[in-house]
């Protein structure tokens, strides 16, 4: 086993995650106590690394700054490659190989997928079965959004069916975590004017050649496509790690508050008297929770303020946001960074509010979008 290059694809716009993605790229969205890209790095640092290529475009400078700060011990292995235009998920592979000559075996990982895939187990599987490619597969209930893999008895992939309308004998989908050999690069078409996609332009060729295997991952896996998906992923990890609050309450709390686990409170969080927090609540660092606040099934980013008497249910509150006294925010609301919400305002279900807006009047219509 030699050292491996890894490509993390981190250039997407994440339009379906707006307003959260107006202020940050998707790989920098936190899942519980660390960003998505940090979960990926924790996995790949279990294998012998040669270089970690990070393909960036949208808010790439933020990703670069984060990685160089958090992963300082791996700084010499980090290589940032900027996409001048969208290249799809296959185009960056050719680009990086042209510039740097990839190792004979390398990994390609979607930077917007959250999982606990074990890179070491994946590599061991690939080395054992051989073949020109290994595609990580995971099971989902609704396969209609994904490409579905059909396997033979040796875990060789014999077919991929894109976004089937009905059950096709398998619920194994592409998990966005690949091991490729250099032969794969020869199959990536050159398309100077547009994107090149693995599912459309490369994987069908691989299947015709044979020797493509499926590594089945049975652990955590979430496609963070929408705010709803993002909350589900956070709550799943919260339930696994914080149901007993071990290591999840990182601040001192008054005796008068009511906590209903699972709850995560980051460093520097303050909570006022008679507040009720939980279940399913994540509050990031240096956020202030006022007296008699009630918050359930929600996530609050860092440095925000929820003033006395506020009620938040099933919502996401961005960073540096001010929620006034007696504000009520209903299920499905997503509030961007730096928003100011006046005292006693009502925010209806599924409201989306873009960053740095001032909300001075109540919003009564469900699903309102204020960009």
Protein described:
The chain has 371 residues and is an alpha/beta fold. The protein has two domains: 4-225, Alpha-Beta Complex (Spore Coat Polysaccharide Biosynthesis Protein SpsA, Chain A); 243-370, 3 Solenoid (UDP N-Acetylglucosamine Acyltransferase, domain 1). It is built from seven helices and 32 strands. It has helices at 36-44, 60-70, 91-100, 119-129, 183-186, 198-209, 227-242; strands spanning 4-10, 30-31, 34-35, 49-56, 78-82, 105-110, 113-115, 133-139, 147-151, 157-162, 172-181, 212-217, 221-223, 258-259, 263-265, 270-271, 276-277, 281-283, 288-289, 294-296, 298-300, 305-306, 311-313, 316-317, 322-323, 328-329, 334-335, 340-341, 346-347, 352-353, 358-359, 369-370. A seven-stranded mixed beta sheet has the order 5-4-1-6-11-8-12, with helices on both faces. It has a seven-stranded parallel beta sheet with strand order 15-18-21-24-27-30-32, covered by helices on one side. It has a six-stranded parallel beta sheet with strand order 14-17-20-23-26-29, with no helix packed on it. The longest helix is centred in the middle third of the chain and has 16 residues, at 227-242.
What features would you highlight for this structure?
Spore Coat Polysaccharide Biosynthesis Protein SpsA, Chain A; about 375 residues; 7-stranded parallel β-sheet; UDP N-Acetylglucosamine Acyltransferase, domain 1; 7-stranded mixed β-sheet; about 20% helix; alpha/beta
């Amino acid at each position: 086993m030699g050292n491996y290059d890894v490509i993390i694809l981190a250039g997407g716009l994440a339009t379906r995650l707006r307003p959260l993605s107006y202020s940050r790229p998707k790989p920098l969205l936190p899942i519980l106590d660390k960003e998505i890209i940090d979960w990926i790095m924790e996995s790949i640092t279990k294998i012998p690394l040669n270089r970690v290529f990070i393909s960036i475009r949208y808010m790439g400078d933020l990703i670069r700054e984060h990685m160089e700060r958090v992963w300082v011990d791996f700084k010499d292995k980090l290589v940032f490659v900027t996409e001048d235009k969208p290249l799809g998920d296959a185009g960056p592979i050719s680009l990086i190989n042209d510039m740097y000559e990839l190792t004979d075996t390398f990994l390609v990982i979607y930077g917007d997928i959250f999982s606990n895939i074990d890179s070491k187990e994946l590599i061991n599987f690939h080395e054992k079965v051989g073949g020109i490619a290994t595609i990580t597969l995971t099971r989902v209930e609704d396969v209609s959004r994904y490409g579905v893999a059909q396997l033979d008895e040796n875990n060789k992939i014999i077919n991929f069916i894109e976004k089937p309308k009905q059950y096709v004998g398998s619920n194994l989908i592409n998990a966005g975590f690949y091991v490729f050999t250099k032969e794969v690069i020869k199959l990536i078409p050159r398309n100077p004017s547009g994107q090149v996609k693995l599912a459309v332009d490369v994987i069908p060729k691989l299947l015709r050649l044979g020797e493509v295997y499926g590594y089945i991952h049975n652990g955590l896996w979430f496609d963070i496509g929408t705010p709803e998906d993002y909350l589900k992923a956070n709550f799943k990890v919260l339930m696994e790690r914080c149901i007993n609050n071990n290591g999840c309450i990182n601040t001192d709390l008054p005796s008068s508050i009511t906590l209903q686990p699972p709850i995560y409170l980051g460093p520097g969080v303050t909570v006022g008297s008679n507040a009720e927090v939980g279940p399913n609540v994540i509050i990031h660092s240096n956020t202030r929770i006022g007296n008699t606040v009630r918050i359930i099934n929600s996530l609050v980013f860092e440095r925000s303020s929820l003033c006395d008497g506020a009620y938040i249910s099933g919502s996401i509150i961005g960073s540096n946001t001010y929620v006034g006294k007696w504000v009520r925010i209903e299920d499905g609301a997503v509030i961007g960074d730096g928003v100011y919400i006046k005292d006693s305002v009502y925010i209806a279900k599924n409201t989306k509010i873009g960053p740095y807006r001032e909300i001075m009047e109540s919003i009564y219509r469900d699903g309102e979008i204020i960009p």
